[in-house]
Write a structure and sequence with these properties.
This protein is α/β, with parallel strands linked by helices. Helix content is about 25%, strand content about 25%. It has two domains: about 150 residues, Medium-chain alcohol dehydrogenases, catalytic domain (Quinone Oxidoreductase, Chain A, domain 1); about 140 residues, 3-Layer(aba) Sandwich (Rossmann fold). Bound molecules: NADP nicotinamide-adenine-dinucleotide phosphate.
């Protein structure tokens, strides 16, 4: 078992700041130490993976490296404690795929504290159709509701709406009875967003209009922002009195050009959302919600399932911002 080989996407430094990605054979004995060995059935592509796979040192310090912040599979062995062999588990976030070999390999070995049992009502495939992106969307929606956002107070703005986090946020909000305004740069995706439940659509230009003013007309009861920068700043300036903004991403920028006025004159609340280190209790609560009351019945419509051999091209597309919905990697295809 220890020297068994398996396939993994490995990112290598190719000199002069370039990186190359190759599907290679690895050995289980190459994996880092850890309590639980998991055979990965499915992984999924998240924005952070695209950064790791293209040499972003803020995400991954050392190469060669196997990215993949999400993994769904079954426990092979857990000599150091953890769920018994055969248990269906999810490993999402923590250091997986950052500086620990991740879910784009057919096996991972991780600390027992990173392992969450997959809810019985959720298949491993659907869990990865949701993945960290969908989990993060659910955390944003939960945070808005916990902060008191109400359906009858006005629309919720979702930015980067055709992306993984954005598309699932649109679905979850619409199903909870919120009116959703979606921001997208994809002219061809308006019908897709309306099918998910968006009632209004803004272009990226419209979503940053009036950006040099300190406050703008009050519009949003809540915001799910995945892109940062001017878009987030404009959204905060347009949030109504007492409204709540959740900030989870930086697909456009890590900057936030803003004054204090939305906070001190309108009582706007800005809530940061993190899925990598969030507590185990919160993780279980959100996954249980996603397999129960917040179950999404059309996950297949917003996701594409690909073999490991096609992942390289999808990473490139994610960096260009042209992917729609979620990408799941079938790690056992052809086995
Ligand atoms: N805090 C956390 O724990 C956490 C967890 C998951 C993800 N994230 C972050 O959330 C963000 C979205 O992740 P994802 O997996 O949903 O990525 P994704 O699938 O690539 O979606 C990002 C979307 O943002 C929009 N976008 C891309 N470049 C843009 C630009 N320059 N200006 C404006 N909009 C742009 C695009 O949507 P449109 O074409 O529709 O505009 C794109 O589809 C990323 O920054 C990611 O790192 C954070």
């Amino acid at each position: 078992m220890h020297d068994m080989t398996f396939k993994a996407l490995v990112v290598h430094e190719a000199g002069e700041g370039r990186f190359r990605r190759v599907v290679e054979q690895r050995r289980v004995s190459d994996l880092p130490g850890g309590d639980v060995l998991v055979r990965v059935h499915y992984s999924s592509l998240n924005y952070k993976d695209a950064l790791s796979a293209s040499g972003n040192r803020g995400v991954t310090r050392k190469y060669p490296h196997t990215p993949g912040i999400d993994a769904a599979g079954e426990v092979v062995s857990a000599p150091g404690g953890g769920p018994e062999a055969g248990t269906k588990v999810l490993v999402c976030g923590y250091d997986l795929g950052m500086n620990t070999a991740g879910g784009f390999g057919q096996y991972i070995r991780v600390p027992a504290t990173w392992v969450v049992e997959c809810p019985v009502d959720l298949s491993l495939l659907d869990a990865m159709r949701i993945g960290t992106a969908g989990f993060t969307a659910a955390q944003c929606v939960a945070a808005l509701q916990e902060a008191g956002s109400r359906q009858d107070n006005g629309p919720v703005l979702v930015t980067g709406a055709t992306g993984g986090v954005g598309s699932i946020a649109v679905i979850l909000l619409a199903r909870r009875g919120f009116k959703v305004t979606a921001v997208t740069g994809k002219e061809t995706a308006h019908a897709f967003l309306r099918e998910l439940g968006a009632t209004d659509i803004l272009t990226r230009e419209q979503a940053t209009a009036g950006g040099n003013r300190m406050l703008l007309r009050e519009r949003w009861e809540g915001v799910v922002d995945t892109v940062g920068g001017d878009t987030l700043a404009t959204a905060i300036k347009s949030t109504r009195y007492g409204g709540t903004v959740t900030c989870c991403g930086n697909a456009a920028s890590g900057d936030l050009p803003l004054s204090v006025y939305p906070f001190i004159l309108r009582g706007v609340r800005l809530i940061g959302i993190d899925s990598a280190q969030c507590s185990r209790a919160r993780r279980e609560e959100i996954w249980n919600r996603l397999s129960g009351a917040w179950r999404i019945d059309n996950l297949a419509d917003i996701s594409t399932v690909i073999p490991l051999a096609e992942l390289d091209g999808y990473i490139e597309r994610m960096l260009q911002g042209t992917i729609r919905g979620r990408v799941v990697v079938d790690m056992q295809e052809g086995e």
